[in-house]
Amino acid sequence: MRPAGLILAGGRGTRMGAGHPKPLRRLAGRPLVAHVADALSGSVAPLFLNTSDAEAYAFLGLPCVPDRRDGFLGPLAGIEAGLMALEERAGGPAQLLVVPGDTPFLPKDLAARLACSGSRPAIVRFRARPQPAVSLWPLSLRPRLSAWLDAARPLALMAFLDEATFEAVDIGEAPDAPGGDPFFNVNTPDDLALCEAHLAPS
């Protein structure tokens, strides 16, 4: 069975300046998050979007899952919400593929290239560096994640993943991504301009 998918679109995106939320900034005429959804299309089901602004993302036609905790607790709270939404779908997938909403060059076969066994999550490693926001989470890990958040443990993704003993999956360069990096994330206006230049006809 294919995994479910979750696009994280609840971040603050402060480095992009005022205006639309970062995943809604346009690249090649389309919102960044639309490029992400396209990359996952056909390889995950269902595909959720972690956001508290369902109206702004209605054009995607995806089920939106807001954080279930007050305040801004970062991606761990979003992943918890996605795992809970998956739990509520009886007979659904037992794994959740998590990606950020600002990574428009993801490999289309990402779901097939990540694998995890038992209760361990798997994360992408690119050029020897872990990419914890691109990761595959077993549904069985949800109670442990909720307990971590209940206990007000560190909110950094890697803090929890280290505790959970993750597996790392090496993925190589992609010629169709800026600098060969398929996990290039758009954090600043300069990053967005770089992506536009990369996609511009030669």
Distance between the termini: 40 Å
Output the structural class.
alpha/beta
According to DSSP, the number of beta strands is: 8
The major sheet is characterized as: 6 strands, mixed
Tally of structural domains: 1
Taking strands numbered 1, 2, ... along the chain, how are they ordered across the largest sheet?
Answer: 4-1-5-7-6-8
Percent helix: 25-40%
Provide an overview of this structure.
It is globular and about 50 Å long. The termini are far apart. Helix 2 (75-87) crosses helix 4. The relative contact order is 0.18. The protein has a single domain (4-199), classed as Alpha-Beta Complex (Spore Coat Polysaccharide Biosynthesis Protein SpsA, Chain A). It has six helices and eight strands, in the order E-E-E-H-E-H-E-H-E-E-H-H-E-H. The strands form two sheets. Strands 4-1-5-7-6-8 form a six-stranded mixed beta sheet, sandwiched between helices. A two-stranded antiparallel sheet has the order 2-3. With 202 residues, it is an alpha/beta fold.
